[in-house]
Amino acid sequence: FFSKKRDMRRLIGFAIRDMWYKLGQNKICFIPGMVGPILEMTLIPEVELRKATIPIFFDMMLCEYQRTGEFRKFENEIILKLDHEVEGGRGDEHYMQLFESILTECARQYPAICTLVESFVSLVKGLLEKLLDYRTVMNDESKDNRMSCTVNLL
């Protein structure tokens, strides 16, 4: 059953990606509303799906930046949702590395926002590292590590 479910998630993920890029000027109407659902999809532990869907985040940033000169709504929403998703057991070191490399590569094609994107990626990477550490420590027996990790996260 799981292998069929995984195949369906991948197939549906690729279809969602294709639909996103066909939205054209209407994409802005789905930011920040679709950030959470897209994040959930990118966190599915399927490498090809992650590689195909993480670039949607850059497209969201670019859309908001072109409309407002910043991407604060997107940024705030992804940070909020990322906390929730990692707490729920999703996300891993590999995701963090892909997130960083894909968004950094996308940003290089747009010098006007490259520095902003790199700062955002650094912020999210740092947060994700702390959230993953926190999740690991919460499953550990040592109360000293829990307190230290909680202080780091705060």
UniProtKB/TrEMBL annotation:
Annotated ranges, domain Dedicator of cytokinesis TPR repeats region: 3-102
InterPro entries xrefs: DOCK (IPR026791), TPR_DOCK (IPR056372)
Gene Ontology biological-process entries: cell migration; myoblast fusion; small GTPase-mediated signal transduction
A Pfam family recorded for this sequence: TPR_DOCK
Record's GO cellular component terms: cytoplasm; plasma membrane
GO MF annotations in UniProt: guanyl-nucleotide exchange factor activity; small GTPase binding
Name by which UniProt lists this protein: DOCK2 protein
Species name: Phaetusa simplex (large-billed tern)
Gene: Dock2_2
